[in-house]
Amino acid sequence: MTDEKDLETEATELLCALIRNACVNDGTPDSGHEERNADAIESYFAGSGLSFERHAAGPDRISLITRIDGSDPKAPTLLLMGHTDVVPVNPSGWERDPFGAEVVDGIVWGRGATDMLNITSTMAVATRRLARSGFKPRGTLIYLAVADEEAGSVYGASYLTREKFDAVKADYVITESGGVPIPAPSGIKLPVTVGEKGVNWRRLVVKGTPGHGSMPFRTDNALVTAAEVVRRVAVYQPKAKILDEWRRYVAELELPKELEAALTDPGRVLEAVRHLEPLGLARMAHACTHTTFSPNVVHGGSKINVIPDRIAIDVDVRALPGVSPLDVDAMLKEALGDLASRVEIEAPRGQEGSTTSLHTPLGDALARVTQALVPGSKIIPRLTGGATDSRFFRWKGVPSYGFALHSRRIPYTDYPLMFHGNNERIDTESLRLSATMWEALCRDFLA
């Protein structure tokens, strides 16, 4: 019990240090400052005997790599990957300081506590414990604390897989997110993320005619048109698409048969999620069955007495696997209707979604380890509505999963509301469970 408590304390202290470093990534090149967390993690590893590589794709945009080399070149290499940046935060919506890393009644509060500094820290704790124990595996273990996941991974996983792939080349990858226990009649279900949607951010540009704000009658105000564009995009619902991964996930939840049938019927799922409770489950169900469009940022206007002639609207589009970037543009035009000719669609090239089978040797090892730690549990495949760094490895044919191991202290329905939301938090028991699971998995899979 003492060792378990020490492990929990160790993981908690490292997580708190990473939260307090406030590596906030707002998408601009000079944000993130992930070097702070790279320094903290490298300092944590001091005395472990491990060596490190630092890769910088930009000033202060540091990704840190360490490894425990295996003895058998034919044995699998496992990459444990956690990102070190976090998204911006509005403190006014929080009960506690988002960068204070307060620990209250066994709960750590702070930006990144669930996305995903909890996993980044527990992976580090397990790697350090393995190194200090003299672990001599057949397969190689790589630990990667990666930059820039929260803004497209240009300075992180995208850069590493394009320019430095030998440093991160692996046979299997695990990163965020999963492992939050879902109670079901037959026992606990532990979701493993096996697929995600494609990121297809778009900028919609609406043009008008400038004029004096004191004479608005019959003017071509780009902001007024943009308001209607925002409304149309926000209410647009493309046809649902039921993927095999979603169908299997719903079946494993052991829901009432009528609800299961509705959630897996493309003709009924939208109406089902309109009334589904709790809210976190409804949001996930909608995201896993639809390509989604969220207008989130507006740019435009120059002065209060000048009628604007240009407004730009940034829309976060997440495309289901099998939906192409061209399909996304067609959907946007459908949403805009007769306003499509008034809107110019600007965007970087979009991305396809990605999936991985859970039926692999690593999937089998995850099942063994989790069943030992949580008797009666079962791992189940799931999709995620967000994007992770897994996609860069899946596109190279590398099986990549999202997982950790959580306690039941925080209900599974709370987690979707905390990602990029207010009052992000994690319980210290989950930190202990995850660190224990990572170490056990490495010993099972790589030894």
What does it look like?
With 447 residues, the chain is an alpha+beta fold. It has 2 domains: 2-195 and 354-446, Aminopeptidase, CATH 3.40.630; 197-346, Alpha-Beta Plaits. Helices cover 35% and strands 20% of the residues. The protein is built from 15 helices and 19 strands. It has helices at 2-20, 35-44, 117-132, 157-163, 165-168, 222-235, 244-253, 257-263, 269-274, 279-287, 325-336, 361-373, 390-394, 415-418, 428-446; strands at residues 53-56, 62-68, 78-83, 103-104, 107-109, 141-146, 172-175, 189-196, 198-199, 202-207, 211-212, 292-300, 306-307, 310-319, 343-346, 354-355, 378-384, 400-402, 425-427. The strands form 5 sheets. Strands 1-2-6-3-7-18 form a 6-stranded mixed β-sheet. Strands 9, 10, 12, 14 and 15 form a 5-stranded antiparallel β-sheet that branches. A 3-stranded antiparallel β-sheet has the order 4-5-19. A hairpin with a 2-residue loop joins β4 (103-104) and β5. α1 (2-20) packs across α15 and α12 packs across α15. The longest helix is centred in the first third of the chain and has 19 residues, at 2-20. The mean pLDDT is 96.
Write a short abstract of this structure.
The chain is an alpha+beta fold. It has 15 helices and 19 strands. The protein is globular.
